[in-house]
Amino acid sequence: MTSPHYLTRRGAVALGVGLAALAARPAFAEDLEERGYALGDVVLGQADAPVTIVEYLSLTCPHCAHFHEESYPEIKAKYIDTGKAKMIVREIYFDQFGLWSSMTARCGGEMGYYRLIDSFLSRQQTWYLDHVRAFNETKNPQPIIGEMKKIGRLAGLSNERMDACLGDQDFLERLVKDFQTTSGEDEVRSTPTFFVNGERVEGAISAEAMAAEIDKHL
């Protein structure tokens, strides 16, 4: 499990200002809700499913990627696709790349959100881990940002749309506020952390172990 050393709101805002400087600030709709982003909780599965799985994850957390590669496909097929459970992902931000990748995943609205979450987790090695050591030495974020945008383009996002999202300070502040509120209320101490109908389950557990937790509520 990855233990939290969270990005503070002040730190996140500073990162957003720096990222916005990479491109001209676009014109936005006055209301954040009208800008086409996926805001708040996005439900995967049937809204009336009897079991709700909430997962706190970071897109730069290797343990989170492991769960989504090894356990999640079976859980999705057995419970989410059959209407027995629905899932809600809530992102945690340890660093700027976790925040920026989350902004990219939410950039195109709810329809493409889970596709991008899956892509960032399944390709975490190539877009993030292969480059983070070099970033720690050079402090140049562009190689990782470039890899992030490759994933976004595969999901149909244009470079212009991604630049607009990543340069939107209102959007950034909303995501940071949401993550601080929900993770604080749920006292999230590590990632991944799950709540199955409100019961805490910690760690990148096996599909069998997660199935046992879900079956308690069916």
From TrEMBL:
Source organism superkingdom: Bacteria
Record has Signal as a keyword: yes
DNA damage keyword on record: no
A Pfam family hit: Thioredoxin_4
InterPro entries according to UniProt: Thioredoxin-like_fold, Thioredoxin-like_sf, Thioredoxin_domain
Signal sequence bounds: 1-29
Domain Thioredoxin: residue ranges: 13-218
Keywords: Signal
Function of the molecule: May be required for disulfide bond formation in some proteins.
Protein name in UniProt: DsbA family protein
